[in-house]
Amino acid sequence: MAVAVVAAALALQGCAGGGDIKYAPGAQPSSTPQKASSPAVTAVNDKSDFDAVHAAVKQQMQPGKRWGFIDPTDRGTVDQRFADMQALFDKYGTVDKMDGLAKTRLLDDQNAINEALARNDGNRLICQRVAPTGSHITKTVCMTLSEMRLRERNDKFNLNQQQLQGMTQKIGGG
Fold it and tell me: Do the Cβ atoms of 60 and 66 come closer than 8 Å?
């Protein structure tokens, strides 16, 4: 049955859309993102296959990894859906032993995980039309989600540093 590969595509396959990533002319970031990785497990038929996929996804959710910038709501969804899938494999052992309802739940869990991870895929390319400072002519700027999040984090840090420096100068009389 098609459900036999229920978790095979589990986030490790095709979340970033696969294929080569294209950039607008002059907008290519300094470090080119990698293509979507191929699945670590090609077929998930039993609990041990599921455990391998689950561990691989959890590892990629660590800071600096593919899904390292996953937001708390989506992380909760992924954790809850993995727990549900774990319970199904604990109860049935293999996909072949699951009844129709259990297979449907397994597929729903997989889809929810894939959706959450796809939204938070650090390799996902995001392009925006922006007008550079002092110009009304827009240009397309593309970067990965990871690059955007790192830029946001650095910008926030730099702003805080400037504010702190301004406060200390006022206090010091400078």
Answer: yes
C-alpha 133/C-alpha 101 separation (Å) is 56
pLDDT recorded at residue 173: 61
Residue 33: the pLDDT is 44
Give the whole-angstrom CA distance, residue 133 versus residue 137. Answer: 10
Give the start-to-end residue ranges of the domains of the chain: 2-123, 128-172
Beta carbons of 9 and 106 less than 8 angstroms apart = no
Strands (E), 9-166: 125-130, 139-144
Strand partners, 46: 94
Q: What's the whole-number average pLDDT of the chain?
A: 77
The tokens describing 72, both together, are 């708390």
* Maximum distance among all Cα pairs of the chain, rounded to whole angstroms: 76
Distance of CA 150 to the CA centre of its chain: 14
Model pTM above 0.85: no
Reported as half-sphere exposure (CB side, CA atoms, 13 A), residue 1 has a value of 15
Do the Cβ atoms of 158 and 150 come closer than 8 Å?
no
pLDDT in tens, 89-126: 999 999 999 999 999 999 899 889 989 998 888 888 88
Q: Dump pLDDT digits (tens) for 146-160.
A: 888 888 888 888 888
